[in-house]
């Protein structure tokens, strides 16, 4: 029985959204479950998918809080 955990930052992917939408979560669950079926022959009813949304203040990247890292990267690209 596979258990897949997906961690994402809690922020929207579209204007006005502040988190992953229910539809996006459903697509992730369906896609990951189908991948395990296709690759490992794991039945859909035996696969568990957990989506964890993490506040950006609790997410680090490149030794920095994610927002600081993104700002720094944007300055380098400009």
From TrEMBL:
Keyword Protease found: no
One function term, GO molecular function aspect: isomerase activity
InterPro entries noted in UniProt: 4-OT, 4-OT-like_dom, Tautomerase/MIF_sf
Active-site residues, record numbering mapped to chain: 2 (proton acceptor)
Pfam families membership: Tautomerase (PF01361)
Domain 4-oxalocrotonate tautomerase-like residue range list: 2-68
Gene3D superfamilies: Macrophage Migration Inhibitory Factor
Enzyme class (EC, first level): isomerase
This protein's UniProt keywords: Isomerase
Keyword Isomerase attached: yes
EC number(s) reported in the record: 5.3.2.-
Family membership noted in the UniProt record: Belongs to the 4-oxalocrotonate tautomerase family.
Protein known as: Tautomerase
Organism ancestry: Bacteria, Pseudomonadati, Pseudomonadota, Betaproteobacteria, Burkholderiales
């Amino acid at each position: 029985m596979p258990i897949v955990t997906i961690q994402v930052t809690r922020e929207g992917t579209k204007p006005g959204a502040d988190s992953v939408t229910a539809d996006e979560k459903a697509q992730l669950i369906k896609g990951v479950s189908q991948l395990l079926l296709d690759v490992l022959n794991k039945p859909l009813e035996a696969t568990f998918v957990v989506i964890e949304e993490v506040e950006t203040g609790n997410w680090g990247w490149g030794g920095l809080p994610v927002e600081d890292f993104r700002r720094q990267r944007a300055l380098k690209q400009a």
